[in-house]
Amino acid sequence: MKSPHVMSARRQSEIAGFVFVTLLAGRAALGQALYTATAPGAYIAVGATYSQYQLQYGDRALGGFGAHVDINFNRAIGIEGEARWLRQNEVEFTNETTYLVGPRYQKRLWHGPLMPYAKFLVGEGIFNFPYNYAKGEYFVMAPGAGLEIRLSDAVKVRLIDFEYQRWPQFTYGTITPYGIGAGITIRVFNGTGDQYRHK
After folding, report:
1. What is the reported pTM?
2. Among residues 183, 111, 186, 182, which one has the least CA distance to residue 155?
3. CA-based angle 51:53:59, to the nearest 5?
4. Residues sharing a CB contact under 8 Å with residue 96, sequence separation 6 or more, in sequence order
5. Under 8 Å CB-to-CB from 23, ≥6 apart: which residues?
6. For residues 151 and 184, is the Cβ–Cβ distance under 8 A?
7. Helices (DSSP H) in the chain: which residue ranges?
8. Rounded Cα distance, 22 and 8, in Å
9. What is the pLDDT of residues 78-120, one digit of tens each?
10. Residue 189, pLDDT score
11. What domains can be seen in the chain, in order of their start residue?
12. If exposure means fewest CB atoms within 10 Å of the residue's CB, which of 70, 76, 90, 173 is most exposed?
C-alpha cells in the first residue's frame, strides 16, 4: 500500500514549477532593485529571526531560526523572501521548514523610528512526519504583520513578527500553523536617496 505521505508525480512537478518561477521572480526583482537604486528609499537588507510556532498537528509547539531578505523599490513597497527552520522542541522528529516570498508594505510612524509592516508570502512548506516516517512538500500561503524599530540608518530590530500560515494541500487536511518571532535586519545595499532624511 502506498504511503499517504508520498507526493504524486503531478504534485512534485507543480511544486518544482512553483519554486522555479519564484526563483526567477526573485532574480528579476533583485535586478530591478539594483536598477532603481537611485530612487529615494530603495534598499536591500538581510536579517535573522527566532520564532515560536504552533503547528496545528498534534498541538506541537516548535521554535527555530530563520533568515530573510527585504528588497524595497521605494520607501514603502518591496518584497520579502524568508526561510524558516523549526527544529527546537521537536518530538519524535516532527518538524517544519518553509521557503516563502511575497510583497511587503511598511510605513514609518510619525517620522519616528517605529515602522509597522504587512506582508503576504507564498511558497513551499516541508513537513517531517513523526519517527521520520515520511516527508511531505506542500504549497503554503502566509499573511503576516510586524513592527520594527530603527536603531540607525543601517540597522533595525524586528520587535515582533506574526505569521499565519495556511497549508491547503496537507496530507490529512488543511492545517494553519501560526507563530511570532523577533530578530534583526541589516541594510547591505542603499539607494542614493535616504529614506529617513527625505520624509
Report:
1. 0.77
2. 186
3. 155
4. 53, 55, 62, 84, 86, 125, 126, 127, 128, 177
5. none
6. no
7. 9-35
8. 21
9. 999 999 999 999 989 999 999 999 999 999 888 889 999 999 9
10. 87
11. 9-190 (2.40.160.20)
12. 173
Beta bridge partners of 152: none
Reference 82, options 65, 97, 101, 60; nearest CA is 101
| C-alpha closest to that of 158 among 53, 59, 49, 84 | 49
Phi/psi at 22 (5° precision): -60, -45
Closest CA to 47 of 77, 67, 72, 71: 67
- Residue range 129-158, pLDDT digits in tens: 999 889 999 999 999 999 999 999 899 999
Rounded to whole angstroms, the Cα distance separating 32 from 72 reads 10
Tally Cβ neighbours within 10 Å of residue 20: 10
Q: What is the pLDDT of residue 60?
A: 84
